[in-house]
Amino acid sequence: MKEATLQSTGDPWAEILERAPWFHNLHLPDGTQTAPEHPLGDFPAFKWAAIAAHIPVDLHGWRVLDVGCNAGFYSIELARRGAHVTAVDIDPHYLDQARWAARRCRVQDAITFWQQPVYALAHDPASYDLVWFMGVFYHLRYPTLALDILRRKTRKLMMFQSLTMPGDHVLTPPENLPIDARERMLEPGWPRMAFIELRLADDPTNWWAPNHACVEAMLRASGFRVRARPDHECYLCEPDGVTPIRHDEELRAAVNLTSK
User: Fold this and answer.
1) What gap in Å lies between CA 175 and CA 86, rounded to an integer?
2) Domain range for residue 125?
3) Per the confidence metrics, is the pTM higher than 0.85?
4) Which residue, 50, 90, 93, 91, is CA-closest to 74?
5) Are 192 and 245 in contact (CB under 8 A)?
6) pLDDT tens digits, residue range 87-104?
7) Distance in angstroms (rounded) separating the CA atoms of residues 212 and 189
8) What is the rounded distance in angstroms from the CA atom of residue 239 to the CA atom of residue 222?
9) CA dist 165 to 112, 133, 139, 185, 219, Å?
10) Partner residues linked to 237 by β-bridges
């Protein structure tokens, strides 16, 4: 694996450069930063600063699932609060960065790293007290399938973030829309999601941009209740206590689940 080819030199900046490029600007214990000139600023530290107060300070005994962990910023912060974190990503480059950073931050024993897509979690029998699902949803070809799977994984809380369309207006749709009243779907605040056929921000994996109303509607449809909005595009959710998957047979067929 790539991790085995990168030998420790003892010089953190040299090892950071070996593992470039970085999307997370990690602040290492010796003061070194992995991406000090990040185009978004001190990312994701400024995001964490906005949402950290909404997560319990003491996570000892909590199992956390970080989906799309990237270079491990959130996994490391949650491990520092006492959680045992399962960190998942599909990109071996990011996982190498995250493993290296976890060692530098001395939390490697609290984090387990897996390389796999979110859909493979359907076959993981474990459930988690907190699911961290930030910056992934809009990159997925099958986004509501991922939400349905993660609802099955979530015991207490989920932190959700997605790229969205501008605006916070919410229209409450009728319980049953007549087929000849579809013009209502064009009204401001109707739950809708834009499909990105080509590229957004030069990224071919940016597939979707839901509006705020659509995010809340999809979360409800997958069995979540929005508890708070700690920051722009961020939703702290909890299971709503009802049957988590409305179309269980469809989900099971999509991920080839043969046992309940």
Assistant:
1) 39
2) 117-254
3) yes
4) 50
5) no
6) 999 999 999 999 999 999
7) 8
8) 9
9) 34, 18, 15, 16, 16
10) 158, 226
**Does residue 131 sit within a domain?**
yes
Q: Please give the radius of gyration of the chain, using alpha carbons only, rounded to the nearest integer.
A: 19
Specify the 3-state DSSP secondary structure of 63: strand
Q: For the chain, how many structural domains are there in total?
A: 1
- For residues 251 and 97, give the distance between their C-alpha atoms in angstroms, rounded to a whole number: 33
Residue 21 in any domain: the answer is: no
Rounded to the nearest 5 degrees, what angle is found at the Cα of 233, between the Cα atoms of 46 and 242? 125
What distance in Å separates the CA atoms of residue 237 and residue 227, rounded to the nearest whole number?
5
Which amino acid is located at 92 in the chain?
Answer: P
Is residue 1 in some structural domain?
no
Query: Would 34 be classed as within a structural domain?
Result: no
Nearest residue to 160 (alpha-carbon basis) of 51, 79, 81: 51
Per-residue pLDDT for 3 more than 60?
no
